[in-house]
Design goal:
Blueprint (H helix, E strand, L loop, with lengths): L5 H13 L16 H17 L4 E2 L5 E2 L14 H18 L5 H11 L17 H17 L12 H15 L22 E3 H18 L2 H16 L12 E3 L7 E2 L4 H17 L4 H11 L32 H15 L4 H18 E3 L5 E2 L14 H12 L42 H26 L1
Antiparallel strand pairs: 1-2, 3-4, 4-5, 6-7
Helix pairs in contact: 2-3, 2-13, 3-4, 3-5, 3-13, 5-6, 5-7, 6-7, 7-8, 7-9, 9-10, 9-11, 11-12, 11-13, 12-13
């Protein structure tokens, strides 16, 4: 039996306490003039209580971790969700300019980077999967893209180098022995699910490759992103009309799919398509693919639940597990980035985020502080089911409504300062032969940034009056 650390016990008791002490909800309407101030305040309130489930704040404002830095050290949270939480806090800082948690976030991530700087820490050597590693890679990629403070110790790898290390590892795990390619869900053979090839791993590789391509300008990352995407297309995981299913059994030849549809899988694919759209200077191919995914997201905004975001596979019956309660965070996050990188999607996306943020804020009414957020946003008041995933989902959907007021992600040529290492994760001093790094031409360096500036300017002009 796993024992609570002192920090974990306090956090657990905090959650239990909040479940029984009712309080006022957060009143939020992102569509009102001048709403930016209230959106920021709501995000700060929710973030504070999410962090309280991980760390204690002393009288001097320092966040003290009693357990292992970078881990939610009390059951039933797994390693990957801590990485997702840190990614959410990086984006929270970017939206609000509140740096209260930055030192805590930086230290937690770096502690979990592992001895070789490859996001394979020894404390996770028995159960880390490809999608687990990817959610940490998404966090460090956000740190590079958003200009988060770089590691100060010269012995530590840069955020970009860590993400490159993960990409190289994924390339080395690409499995052509079954189903003509693809990544397995698990890294290690002894774990349940090793023969499951899922969207989270393969879609995650697609998105990470797209983001690395946009940040570095290197076409080889885009080629691997496209390779992962093309494998999904020929598998049963993506239908011809861009519905996204969860996974398939490689031992059975990847003939059929688990047809459950989850918000985070759609979010992963939406985000990857938006990055590729921007990287390719707005190609019609990626515009069509992005639109295809987006046109299926209404399944998660059912009319019967007042068009509020719902994890339809498990939420209505209140049968989601601890992982699944966090999934709405990722759809919220990547809907927002899609609206920014592919502004033609904003008129479709922003009303969904606005309406769901208002509903999520109403759910943040558990506990004496009034900020413990519940799980089912279509309820008018706190539903008594809180936790890290619920708090993170509320934080992300609320923060997403500030997307029109922040600049697009940096890249290596327009302000990005994160140190990279194309050979990271290979064990060599030189890039592996499977990754040929090409020089960037002038068009590669500037094209995506110019597109974003020109098109986003038009959208932001229209959005500004609505929010402020």
């Amino acid at each position: 039996m796993k024992l609570f650390s002192s920090a974990g016990l306090l956090a657990f008791l905090y959650v239990i306490g909040c479940n029984v002490l009712p309080a006022a909800a957060i009143d939020l309407d992102p569509t009102q003039p001048g709403a930016l101030y209230s959106i920021r305040n709501a995000a700060k309130t929710v973030a504070k209580d999410m962090v309280a489930m991980y760390a204690n704040q002393d009288a001097g404002g320092t966040h003290v971790i009693s357990g292992i830095p970078g881990l939610l050290t009390y059951p039933p949270y797994y390693w990957w969700e801590a990485g997702a939480m840190f990614g959410s806090l990086i984006e929270y800082w970017y939206y609000t300019n509140d740096s209260t948690y930055n030192d805590m976030v930086r230290d937690g991530i770096l502690f979990q980077v592992g001895e070789k700087g490859n996001l394979m820490p020894a404390n996770q050597s028995k159960d880390e999967g490809n999608d687990d590693q990817l959610f940490w890679a998404f966090a460090v990629m956000s740190a590079a893209e958003l200009g988060f403070e770089n590691p100060t110790d010269p012995k530590q790898p840069g955020w970009l180098a860590i993400a490159q290390s993960v990409m190289n590892q994924l390339i080395s795990r690409w499995d052509t022995t079954q189903c003509s390619g693809g990544l397995k869900w698990q890294i290690y053979q002894w774990l349940d699910g090793y023969n499951y090839k899922n969207t989270a791993a393969n879609g995650g590789m697609f998105q990470l490759g797209a983001r690395l391509a946009m940040y570095t300008g290197n076409a080889t990352y885009a080629e691997w992103a496209t390779k992962a995407f093309d494998w999904l297309v020929q598998s049963p995981l993506l239908t011809k009309d861009w519905q996204v299913y969860d996974g398939t059994n490689s031992l059975a030849g990847c003939k059929d799919a688990d047809q459950l549809q989850w918000t985070y899988n759609y979010g992963i694919m939406l985000g990857g398509a938006a990055y590729m759209y921007n990287y390719t200077n707005g190609s019609s191919l990626w515009a069509d693919r992005l639109s295809g995914f987006l046109n299926h997201t209404p399944v998660f905004f059912p009319k019967a639940q007042n068009n509020v975001m719902v994890e339809v596979a498990c939420e209505i019956t209140q049968k989601c597990d601890v992982d699944q309660w966090s999934f709405k965070a990722y759809l919220s996050r990547w809907l927002a980035i899609s609206a920014q990188l592919a502004p033609f999607t904003a008129p479709q996306i922003m009303p969904m985020l606005q309406h769901s943020a208002t509903a999520a804020a109403k759910q943040c009414s558990g506990g004496d502080s009034g900020t413990q957020c519940g799980s089912r946003w279509f309820y008018e008041q706190y539903d008594g089911n809180g936790g890290v995933g619920q708090q993170m989902s509320a934080l992300n959907v609320i923060s997403a409504n500030m997307i029109a007021h922040v600049q697009p992600p940096f890249n290596a040529k327009n302000g990005g300062s994160s140190q990279g290492n194309p050979a990271a994760g290979t064990g060599d001093d030189n890039p592996p032969t499977t990754v040929v790094f090409e020089p960037m031409g002038t068009g590669d360096k500037a094209g995506a940034a110019i597109l974003t500036i020109l098109v986003l300017g038009t959208w932001m002009g229209g959005a500004w009056w609505m929010v402020s």
